[in-house]
Specification:
Layout (H helix, E strand, L loop, with lengths): L1 H19 L2 E3 L4 H28 L25 H9 L3 E9 L9 E10 L6 E4 H11 L2 H6 L9
Antiparallel strand pairs: 1-3, 2-3, 3-4
Length: 160
Amino acid sequence: MTVSSARRAETLAFRLIAFAETLFPDDESHLFVLADQDIVDTAIQFAINARRFLADSHPEASSIEIELMDKEYKPTYPLETNLLRVLHGIIHSHYLYSEYIEQEHPTFKSASGKLVKGLMFETDRYPRKCVHLASLAHTYLKYGSARDLILGGPLNQKVS
């Protein structure tokens, strides 16, 4: 189960990265509503599988900090950087929404849209926080891939 959870989380991490770099139509179309729901659903499945893998295989994973890739990211709420707290927050959230910015298409100026940057979540235990979506996925891929379980990798070494 651990390897299957790790592999599933890897696949979902790549989906989150793809979502984080996609410009969705700015109109109030059904397309953005569907995409937004798919982002949230993907994040939940990612968090469940990533946490299952990390909890079963690597108790030292509680010290992993998410490495922010976008230094210009300005979250709506405080930024959460602890990987396991983010995963727990997504899984147990009673408030979970994508956070996006309005942006023009770099080539087609008339095609503005919404660029998903992060997730906002809140639980009974944690106040409302944000996480940068691509950074979350990249950090998991760096520290929590199935390759590490099978071949040994960063999580089999001491995390600072």
